[in-house]
Specification:
Layout: E1 5-6, H1 8-18, E2 25-28, E3 36-37, E4 41-42, E5 52-53, E6 57-60, H2 62-65, E7 74-82, E8 96-100, E9 112-115, E10 144-147, E11 157-158, E12 169-171, H3 179-187, E13 192-196, E14 200-206, E15 210-211, E16 222-223, H4 226-236, E17 240-247, H5 251-261, E18 267-271, H6 281-287, E19 298-304, E20 306-307, E21 311-317, E22 322-327, H7 331-349, E23 359-364, E24 370-371, E25 377-385, E26 390-393, H8 402-407, E27 410-414, E28 420-421, E29 426-431
Parallel strand pairs: 1-19, 7-8, 14-17, 14-18, 15-16, 18-22, 20-25, 23-26
Antiparallel strand pairs: 2-13, 3-13, 4-12, 5-11, 6-8, 6-9, 7-10, 19-21, 21-22, 23-29, 24-28, 25-26, 25-27, 27-29
Helix pairs in contact: 1-7, 4-7, 5-6
Length: 433
């Protein structure tokens, strides 16, 4: 580790310069959710693919119902049913009508659809309240329908191509595929799509004092929260996360575990063991994982001008130069470090255009001035009130206060050259929501 102090921005730039978006692959639609499209998708067929009815009712010719009223309804002969998915369509001639269901294709000869509520529904009575099921026909309904109102041409007809036309751009490259986009791809008949896959992120926590939740704590032991928090954060960022529970404080064991995990990792994240203590095995183990013959490999351990999260490690390991970020072990430090450095790396691997959390300016709500160490960028936990553009700190500045982190929905950023912030002052916040 050199004695150079890195700024937050320099460290992040260094990481993002070394992380390349993953190679695109063809995926089935269910597997492509959350992925970024790498090609423009054009519409192969119009949607809807045919003129269809937007109502349950009767397909008619306009001239046959002109002037129809309650007192003098137009009486039409019902020649058949058209249901959604109908194959053979009856042809509607003068004085005729076809019962039609919502979404069914407009039959030849018909020019408009009369909603069933504007008719007697073929019962010979007053206004109908709904259509009978096609399976009931023709029993219980006469072969005639009385129409009580006229319609204009194309009334209640969804035109072919009114949603999208063949040849239109359906989705542009760079689109993140959420539920509506997956639905559109299915609607235009695409079973697979070319995307950048979700990155596989392996999260490893280190420390002999760590015990898995659900097990009994011994003397001097604590529960491993970091691997759970960071694996959840990786999933939240769009990755597929693999959590490796606490690895004991032994350099050889850790090195072997890291090498085992390389097979399924696009990015490795370790937490703990990176500061200046005697037991900081991550440094010891990873310093030797890089290949000496490869100038670009190996992990660089650094001090950053930030609080929390001063000790950080970054580099690449293994034959494929898999990027590795070594984060500090304090729960708040590790989470803040994840937000600032790991999340943008994951979003870069995904090929997303914007890799950063949104930021806002907010007025500080506090009883007294906030202090911050000189020459360090401090990140405090806070709750953001969007309606008032205000932010309230939660918890103190301690890097072990995980309860306060669970209440926070933003980070308050205090710049390196500021040592005190008065209540009511404007501060920058990173929104975590």
């Amino acid at each position: 580790m050199s004695n150079t102090i890195w700024s937050v921005d320099e460290h992040l730039e260094d990481i993002l310069a070394a992380v390349e978006p993953l190679e695109p692959i063809e995926l089935q639609l269910p597997d492509a959710q959350g992925c970024v499209l790498v090609e423009d998708v054009t519409v192969p067929l119009a949607l809807p693919p045919f003129d269809n009815s937007s109502m349950d009712g009767y397909a008619v010719r306009v001239a046959d119902v002109a002037g129809a009223g309650e007192e003098f309804p137009a009486v039409l002969t019902v020649i058949g049913d058209v249901a959604a998915g109908s194959g053979e369509l009856p042809s509607v001639g003068p004085g005729q009508a076809a019962r039609i269901m919502t979404g069914a294709p407009l039959p030849p000869g018909a020019e408009a659809v009369v909603p069933v509520e504007w008719t007697d529904g073929g019962t010979g009575g007053g206004a109908a309240t709904g259509m009978r099921a096609a399976s009931d026909a023709p029993e219980g309904a006469s072969g005639e329908v009385r129409v009580h109102r006229p319609v204009e041409a194309r009334a209640h007809v969804r035109a072919r191509g009114s949603d999208v036309r063949a040849g239109d751009l359906a989705l542009a490259a760079g689109t993140v595929l959420g539920p509506p986009q997956i639905g559109l791809l299915a609607a235009i008949g695409r079973g697979t799509v070319k995307v950048r896959p979700r990155p596989r992120v392996v999260v490893l926590s280190t420390g002999s004092e760590l015990v898995q939740p659900g097990e009994k704590l011994g003397e001097g032991q604590i529960y491993d929260s970091n691997s759970f928090a960071l694996a959840a954060a990786a999933r939240d960022a769009g990755a597929i996360a693999y959590r490796v529970g606490a690895v004991t404080d032994d350099a050889e064991t850790l090195r072997a575990t890291v090498e085992d995990q390389l097979i399924r990792a696009d990015l490795l994240v370790t937490t703990g063991g990176v500061s200046v203590g005697a037991y900081d095995v991550v440094k010891e183990a990873l310093s030797s994982v890089g290949d000496e013959d490869e100038p670009g490999s190996g992990i660089d351990f650094r001090k950053l001008a930030m609080q929390p999260g001063k000790p950080q490690g970054f580099g690449s390991i293994g034959p494929d130069h898999t990027p590795l970020l070594a984060l500090p072990g304090n729960p708040v430090s590790s989470y803040v470090s994840f937000e600032l450095f790991v999340r943008p790396a994951i979003r870069t691997l995904m090929g997303l255009p914007d890799v950063h959390r949104p930021r806002a300016r907010a007025a500080l709500r506090a009883d007294k001035a906030l202090t911050s160490p000189a020459a360090r960028r401090q990140f405090l936990r806070g709750t953001y009130d969007a309606s008032e553009s205000a932010v309230t700190p939660v918890g103190g500045s301690g890097s072990h206060l995980i309860a306060a982190l669970a209440q926070a929905d933003c980070l308050i950023v205090i710049p390196e050259d500021v040592t005190s912030v008065e209540p009511g002052s404007e501060v920058e916040v990173v929104l975590l929501g």
